[in-house]
Amino acid sequence: MSPSPQNECGCCAGIAAETPALLFNRPGLSAIAYRVGTYQSFRRSLHAGLSDGRWPVLRGLRTRDDDDFTLALLDAWAVTGDILTFYQERIANESYLRTATERLSILEQSRLLGYQAGPGLAAATHLAFTMEEATGLAEQAAQPIMLAVGSKVQSVPGPGEQPQTFETIEAIEARPAWNALQAQLTEPQALAWNMTELWLEGVNVGLTVGDALLIVADNGLTVEASLRRVTRIEAEIDWRNTRVWLADISTSAGSIAATRPGVYVMRTIASPFGHNAPLKATYANNAYSYDEWDLDGETEGVLGLSSRHDKILVDSWAAVERENNFVPGSRVWSFAKVTGVTHQSMAKYGMAGSATKLSFDKEVWVTEGADLAALRHITIAAQSEALAVSERPLSYPVYGETLSLEQLVEGLMSGRPLAVSGKRQRIRITAVPRTSNRTRLPVDLPGDVPGPPDLPDVPDIELPPILIFDSGGFVLLTVGDILSLVAPPMTIAGSIFSALAPPEFGAVLSDSAPPMLRLQVMDRDGKSGYVTISAGAIELMAPSEKEDTVSEIVFIDDAVEAAITHDRDRTTLQLATSLAHVYERTTVRVNANVAAATHGESVKEPLGSGDAAVPYQAFTLRQPPVTYVGAATASGSASTLKVYVNEVLWQEVPFLYGHGPTERIYIARQDDEGRTTIRFGDGITGARLPTGRNNVRAEYRKGTGLGGLVRARQLNLLMSRPLGLKGVVNPEAAQGAEEPESRDDARKNAPLTVLTLDRAVSLQDYEDFARTFSGIAKAQAVWIWDGRKRSIFLTVAGPNGEVPDEEGSVMSTLKEALRAYGDPYVPFTVRSYRQAWFELAGTVTVHPDHVTETVMTAVAETLRQRYAFEARSFGQPVALSDVIAAIQAVSGVVAVDVDRFVRQDQSLPPIQPRLIADRPAMGADGLVPAAELLLLDPASLTQLKAMP
Questions:
Q1: I want to staple 688 with a disulfide (CB 3.0 to 4.6 A). Which of 113, 683, 849, 865 is the partner?
Q2: Residue numbers of the domain that contains 537
Q3: pTM for the complete prediction?
Q4: Is residue 185 assigned to a domain?
Q5: Alpha-carbon torsion angle 471, 477, 481, 486, nearest 10
């Protein structure tokens, strides 16, 4: 449209003012509009004022050219208005918590609510110290050494890392004898008349296969004896003893006059004199008749041996085997002490020779009505030689809540931490357990445990054990495969799983009717899973030198009176929690010189001089950031800062308001750069500083954040080395660290403190309280019903997706805080969340006008952010349509073809319309699992291929 001829000069342009503009902001916006005008609107409004009839003096201004001085001046004012309103809008946005973009604004607004942005949290761990072994007397070596609070240790940094300093936060008593305590390796060997296995001291016991052993055993009522045959001998060089396998000679136990148990080898096996005598020949009626000889001088307590035996001594033991007079064809045994030994020549029964006559302390055979035939069926085992019986080595692994030590250990106290290390117990598949034409496992698994895919349906095939991986998939095991146990074994009876105690596990491995076992194992590639197998199809393996050592921290239980018990030779400990690993017994080492430690380095800093004339006197610490450690407070943290004035400790408070003029208090505030400023009172709210010269000093620790999450065994440099201290290591990785609270987290968490007011009453309160607790990034609280009562189940996650240790410092302090600030009549449970992963595979068609690499990078980044830890909620499902929509929203994507969309831990068809994440709910076994967080496995993004 052509311009109106009436406005060709432009004099009528902008006749209406456009400023101030009408402002309207709907609720919930992330930014508000607060500008009454911009450069253009201000410029047009000023030009409109030139045409206003109320200003007749401007009638002479008939131009609107930009190079006119008047219009240039108006243009400058329009620029000025644009700048002012721009910053006015910025200031207005910074005045509201939801719309503020500067961290300082959020910090200051949070303080109006009484909320302090999280200053970060120091990592915590335990340090196991090794003491110098004293070379003097044993009494001197056992003397304890006190390790003070603040013992300093530094880490050995890896590539791209910085050394981190940790300090102990408790004083401990340390002893060289506690450096490496061994788990119980042997147990007293109980002798029994029918025992099939025997352990003897030494590796050269002078036994051969076929030797007869006299077993004298105490059954609790009487002392009984039996005769056993040696069938196998194996010297155990490592144990410095000999293992002997036995078989029956005597089929029952007999009485013996022994006073204590023992084992004797019978070096002489002999027959009575006359056992090989010819029958007595009698000639009558021109014919010979042959009859048995009558006994000649033998008594029931005396037997003559057929040859001379000089090594049979008085008070030795003998066993006499003869026919049972009451049960024809059976044999009986008598066990007696030799009371007399006579060597003589004998001539009777038609024969002569040297003999040894033995007298016994009891009747060993029956002479009444007997003839020489009774002697022919007697065998005497004599010349007993005592064998030293050793303790029986324990072959089963170490796990569970009871830890027996090999030696007697004095000085341990309940609640003391212990560092336990060793190698995992390995097992070897020795046999295929059964033949079957079944196509699945030989037991029915619970409904929440996925079964493997169908095996080939071939009748009467051997069904090998199947290792089902936790991440999904399975593998068939063969004889000779070696696995490592990662959890206590369980027996299976139908669908019921029962945990086995270590001695029970050792017993079922040699049971004649071995049960089926459910074993949590790890293969040689480090992949974990479970296998169902007969106990008779596995054997325990010795540790491998290449296998890594694992370690953990446990505590002696302080909730029971008899947590520490002693017998004559050993100490047994009751632990507060079960061991996390299943250890091969001979590799277990227990260090009791353990102290708790946290990240940070101590600083002692003079702050300056107090001046009573200055209200609100302030000092800034020169070495930020101040370390905060976990504590059972509403925030979950406590400062390590201590301020002394004239060598008197002053107390930190959140606010000066409400305090009296004589209270020795101060407040500490951190700025946006982590610097801490200490401010004292004005004499009305809090005392002023007294005047003095350099009379104000501070003690604190510096260092915090995720840099302190050192790996296990990475802290091994002693920075403090008191006399007697040799080495140090952290058995477990540090945990519980948290970076200073980010701007977005502070924006989200600050309102929660108004809702909870440092107490937890409702279900939402418990969730909000945990969410604002230091070291916790996500929380979900739900009601659960166990059939009798309702309780709160709280699932939590650590920063950056960390799974908090159930017994770690963060979880422990959170539970303590909830007990202190929550409803004392409402039971609750706190559990770490379960990680669940899903895989994605397929093809993406890229528009030919777009660069394929750029589009695929954008697709991967979009999916990574959309299904990362920060963007997901507990129990939140993932729909296939949502994934496709996210990919399609990327510029340059034409089409998506998904080939695989499934959870890694489920054996299901490769494409599911919806993946479900579990929420806490009571299971059939009465247990409540924690909520799941379903995340995308970043490695599966490589399975998305581009199609140009």
A1: 683
A2: 420-591
A3: 0.78
A4: no
A5: 40
